[in-house]
């Protein structure tokens, strides 16, 4: 499990009352997205999709019962992560695309997957790097110097 997620789950669960208060005051769409991210359970997307008409908070109208279930499942999931009973899900590109569609209520081109993955911290991959075609030693990298001209201020 990525150490950062484990640390964050443990910190969040250290005071369950405070965690629940924070979740009660949080926007439900990002909470649902966090739940899908951690569990990989896409059923939340399907259940919520009819209630999201756009990317702004006022464009989502979840029933109180659905909001309660999302918050409760998120608390349970964070507890399970903090205790080590479960690991965060590995999110496929297909699920990332579905998450983007659901979160804003419209189709989002798959070309945005890499940006979304990087910004959301879904994995450790550096999407801005260029992979080497063959293995390069640390010494070669340390000895390699580049000057970029015309890259802006």
Question: Short summary of the structure?
Answer:
By secondary structure, the chain is mainly α. It has helices spanning 3-13, 16-25, 28-39, 43-48, 64-83, 93-104, 113-120, 138-143. It contains eight helices and no strands.
Textual characterization of the structure:
It is a single chain. This protein is globular. The termini are far apart. The mean pLDDT is 87. It has helices at residues 3-13, 16-25, 28-39, 43-48, 64-83, 93-104, 113-120, 138-143. With 153 residues, it is mainly α. The chain is built from eight helices and no strands.
Topology:
Blueprint: H1 3-13, H2 16-25, H3 28-39, H4 43-48, H5 64-83, H6 93-104, H7 113-120, H8 138-143
Helix pairs in contact: 1-5, 3-5
H/E element order = HHHHHHHH
Q: Give the overall average pLDDT.
A: 87
The residue ranges in which pLDDT falls below 50 over 5 or more consecutive positions are: none
Give a count of the beta strands, DSSP E runs of length 2 or more. 0
Helix/strand/pairing category: mainly alpha
Q: What is Rg?
A: 19 Å
Kindly report how far apart the N and C termini lie.
39 Å
- Estimate percent helicity: 55-70%
Percent in strands: under 5%
Question: Biggest sheet, open or closed, and with what strands and sense?
Answer: none
What is the number of helices? 8
**Globular, elongated, flat, extended or rod-shaped: what is the shape?**
globular
What descriptors fit this protein?
mainly alpha, 153 residues, globular, single chain, 56% helix, 0% strand
């Amino acid at each position: 499990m990525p150490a950062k997620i484990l640390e964050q789950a443990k910190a969040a669960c250290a005071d369950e009352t405070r965690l629940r208060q924070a979740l009660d005051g949080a926007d439900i769409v990002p909470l649902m997205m966090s739940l899908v991210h951690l569990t990989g359970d896409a059923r939340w997307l399907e259940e919520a999709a009819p209630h999201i008409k756009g990317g702004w908070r006022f464009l989502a109208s979840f029933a109180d019962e659905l909001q309660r279930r999302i918050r409760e499942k998120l608390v349970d999931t964070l507890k399970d992560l903090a205790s080590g009973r479960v690991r965060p899900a590995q999110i496929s590109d297909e699920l990332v695309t579905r998450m983007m569609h659901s979160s804003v209520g419209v189709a989002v081109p798959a070309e945005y997957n890499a940006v979304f993955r990087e910004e959301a911290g879904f994995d450790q991959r550096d999407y801005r790097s260029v992979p080497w075609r063959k293995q390069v030693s640390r010494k070669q990298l340390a000895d390699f110097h580049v000057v970029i001209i015309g890259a802006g201020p």
